Amino acid sequence: MSLAEKLSSLPTCPGCYLHKDSRSQVIYVGKAKNLRHRVRSYFQSSRQHDPKTQELVARIADFEFIVTDTEIEALVLESNLIKQYKPRYNVLLKDDKQYPHLKLTLNESFPRVIKTRRVLNDGALYHGPYLPASLAHQTLRLVNQMFQLRTCEIEIDGRRDRPCLEYHIKRCLGPCVRDLCSKAEYAEAVRDVKLFFEGKNKQLVAELQARMERASEALRFEQAARYRDQLRLIERLGETQKMMLKDAADVDIFGYYRDGARLALQLFTMREGRIIGRREFFWEDLPPDDRFDAATFLGEALTQYYALGNYVPHEVHAPHDFADRDVLESFLSERRGAKVRILDPRRGQKRELVELVERNARVAFDQRFRTLKPDLAQVLDELADSLELPRFPARIECFDISHIQGAEAVASLVVCENGQPAKPEYRKFRIKTATGGDDFASMQEVVRRRYARLLREAKPLPDLVLVDGGKGQLSAAAQALRELELEALPLASIAKREEIIFVKGREHDPIRLERHSPILRLIQMIRDEAHRFAVAFHRQRRTLRDFDSELLSIPGIGPKLKTRLLRNLGSLDNIRRASLAELTPFVGEPRARAIWRHFHPDALESAQPAAKAD
Fold it and tell me: Where is the UVR domain (predicted)?
């Protein structure tokens, strides 16, 4: 269908629409109460669009739409689609760093509390992030001490003969042994952890007090003492809390600070009148002033935040009104099961708290974009002086190696131009000749391959080559450059633990910079980015290896059938869940049965419906 035909066939019900460019890439996702009116409005010449929308419309070559039953469903779907496609013209909410969270695994029969850096929509309860990261470990140890949930990963069926050491040192209730802890007692401890994570300390204290009194009256003094110790710990934690509201409430308070294309968004979480945590989000590629719509930005950011499954408070305080506030209020009220209000306070204590959050956003902005990123030209000049470089290091290339005991060894190359990461220039390498986890040989291989290619293609060389490691990695990289007759190319390495910089030609006189030196911070940033990129590629390779090894271990399945299954079913999980009838069209009935038996060894084949022939 042509674009005009699609526009004429649009329904009038709620839903989401996806605008695409000439390469069929999704460039914008939106929602609408009336799809026909909303989508057509983009193409009406009489409409006075803002500059950002004008640029968007000029790039639209096609669109799709998805119908929903209600506007609230469209709101949730929009957030999921934005997260999936990451369109250029939408606001994308993402954390600056992967700070650790504590995860209460409510999706397990006997939940645990574990530390994680990934927040997923998996039914678990997440608490955090923790800044500094060491605070997560301290809180986890405190939670284990207070509530004694299990820390093991074994299957809990109550059939064990005796508990492990964790039970004897009062760090676990012992649900693995039937007579030690019933499922109801364990569920009570899980509920206490949930209240603790949600900041509902008053309710938790009242319940623990009542349980302690009941246990004491029933002469269960050991259990009463456990409740008493929990009460003392919670009260001690509460003594450190200073910031309070007069009316105890659960409130999320947002504020932001923007300067040009950069913006810092700050969130304070208040539970029972106390500020218990905060989160920070940053943007570096927002449109200029004449195309920035503050109301649209705030609405999209808040929608994405709560669509991720974060805790819904009684109230949300925002610095100003924003688009679709009524729809978001209805969605949050439905999620919470009670009325949720979104306010933009203009005066009084609530306004003062919003201004406090905005001041914190300004501080976070300065720390990220100004204090931690001083005049980069000056820093690079100082770097050239410290390393005695022959020229200004406008382009720096950094290598890192990643593997686990030699398996799936890979390398990364990141590029920094004028002090800023140049991500389109990043490269990945699979180690081909080095074996056995030999970091030195691996480094020599990738450096040789990189600069041999630049020489063949007559491309410019970097001003500085940086490798992650000590003297050994530096020597290996220098050998590769010698083989290519590039001895004059400046080369340095940075050792992780000592943070010492070794420079080729003066290995016996390493450079020790001050811990807070902007030069050291710049080098650490480049090194850490290379490490992150290498680890991400290594994880990807391991995932592919696991997929290949499991599927190819099935008799009759070779590389071609594996590729066909992956292309049609999308992933190993989809293949694992597929029925016999869904597998048969791609591999035939005999191989489909072999695949199904492999993933369902304990199931009766008769329970699967036979594949129907066409």
Answer: 202-237
> DSSP alpha helices (H): ranges in 348-438?
348-365, 376-386
Give the C-alpha separation, 273 to 219, whole Å. Answer: 36
Judgement on whether residues 383 and 361 belong to the same structural domain of the protein: no
Q: What are φ and ψ of residue 73, in 5° steps?
A: -60, -40
Q: What letter does residue 177 receive in the DSSP assignment?
A: B
Angstrom distance (rounded) from CA 411 to CA 531: 9
pLDDT digits (tens, 9 = 90+) for 501-560: 999 988 888 888 877 788 888 899 999 899 888 888 777 766 555 555 567 778 778 778
Instruction: List Cβ<8 Å contacts ≥24 apart for 80-85.
Output: 80/307, 81/16, 81/18, 81/26, 81/29, 82/29, 82/300, 82/304, 83/304, 85/18, 85/26, 85/29
Residues 407 and 520 reside in one and the same domain: yes
The reply to whether 186 and 291 lie within a common domain is: no
Q: Render pLDDT for 375-412 as a digit per residue (tens, 0 to 9).
A: 678 888 889 888 989 889 999 999 998 876 556 688 89
Give the count of domains, the chain. 5
DSSP string, 221-263: HHHHHHHHHHHHHHHHHHTT---B-SS---EEEEEEEEETTEE
Same domain (yes/no): 62, 109: no
Given a contact cutoff of 8 angstroms between Cβ atoms, the answer to whether 292 and 301 are in contact is no
Q: How far is CA 567 from each of CA 227, 560, 563, 570, 599, rounded to the nearest angstrom?
A: 56, 11, 6, 6, 19
The counts of H helices and E strands in the chain are: 20, 18
Is 151 contained in some domain? yes
- Structural domain boundaries, residue 329: 251-371
Decide: residue 518, CB within 10 A, 0-12 exposed, 13-18 middle, 19+ buried.
Answer: buried
Q: Please, which pLDDT band fits residue 196 given cuts at 50, 70 and 90?
A: confident
357 assigned to some structural domain = yes
Tokens of 274: 């106390």
Q: Which pair of structure tokens corresponds to residue 101? A: 């969270």
Task: Write the CATH number for 334.
Answer: 3.30.420
Q: What is d(CA 555, CA 558) in angstroms, rounded to the nearest whole number?
A: 8
Cα separation, 258 vs 240, in Å, equals 32
Torsions phi, psi for 574 (to 5 deg): -65, -40
CB 178 within 8 A of CB 158: yes
CA angle 487, 447, 500 (to 5 degrees): 75
Instruction: Confirm whether 450 is domain-assigned.
Output: yes
